[in-house]
Amino acid sequence: MVKIRGLSSLTNEEKQAIVYRYNLELEKILPAVQSIVDDVKQRRDEAVIDYTFNFDKVFISKDKLRVSEEEINSAYKNVPPKLLKAINRSMVNIRKFHERQINEFSCNTQSGVNVSQIIRPLERVGIYVPGGRAAYPSTVLMTAVPAKLVGVEQIIVCTPPQENGTINSAILVACSEAEVTEIYKVGGAQAIAAMAYGTEVIPKVEAIFGPGNIYVTAAKFLVSRHVRIDLPAGPSELLIISDDTGDPNFIAADMLSQAEHDPQAKVILLTTSEVLAHKVESSINRFLELLPRKEILLESLENLWILVTRDLDEAVEFSNNYAPEHLEIHVKSPKSLLKKVKNAGAIFLGSYSPVAVGDYSAGSNHVLPTGGYAKAYSGLSSYNFVKTISVIECSHAGLKGLAETVVTLAEFEGLYAHAESIKARFKSEK
Fold this sequence. Notes:
CATH architecture of the largest domain: 3-Layer(aba) Sandwich
CATH superfamily of the largest domain: Nitrogenase molybdenum iron protein domain
CATH topology of the largest domain: Rossmann fold
Number of helices: 17
Strand order of the largest sheet: 1-11-10-9-12-13
């Protein structure tokens, strides 16, 4: 089940098979997802209801798509005080981290020329909260809290209904605590299309955020011509780098923590110690006997690799090429290795920084780029929910000091009216 190989012994084809994620699969399903998106654009709520029945096996009438206040109030009765406390504790840390990300500033680029940046929130955003195999109130917090923090007025959540036509109580409570404006019982590609183009019931949004399965990811790509999306956030990924000082039980537990998300999850350990590699394998097999969600774990373990490297440099080189969503570093001096890391969605340093703490309560965001997109994308942040606007203010002396520079560049580019707009302001002074 668990594959242990020497990294240097792999052929180029084998390495590519490991690095490969779901991008080609994404291409395969795009036509099918496009048909769903087009159908929702045309038939709107009627299509949403049909797809909800076909995929989620539940009929929800048009007047029941939106979650009512009564449903939200009732959900609080089903959420234990301990869980509510955890939700609110996590919200505090998420706010602390995300409020530090947004800064307006002003600077004098030269005497008499002031350039500043102001920030304005988006007005209406859509958030997708995955469902199906599990409920994720944490995703509500990771998306809605930054949106509310920066001043987004309308926060729309779409999430798949349960078999009885309701939404998981913890998700509803998290939405309420995070001050989500509206919640709709719809999931999958049809939810993305509904938020992107609007229906009679579900309002059109300016941007869509949140992770999802491969169909949700495909739908986000397809609608990105018309609405802003956050990043490619598909099935979970974890890559761990360890030397011989790593704790095999910690590493095995962390690998399984990401493997249990989805059968398509990808988990890799790169270690300089063959002894550690076999200890981790034994720990994985032992944990498997104790954990639920075994069916998902056994399927996703087909995508699990333990690769023995010559040294840590070889491990980092592979990791940078792989560009994992989550990168854990279990080595004697984690910070010394951090300087060499170029690509990762989020990095977890040391034996006591498991991915799970970032998934829930450290304060950083768990909506992260997958599929190798960490080479070009950052994780979700407060900046995703705002627009930055430049403000330029020149005094008479400041513009005069820049006049020759601007005129020279404008005339070189053949834009003589640009140049004249500068010259006209100083003709009377000659």
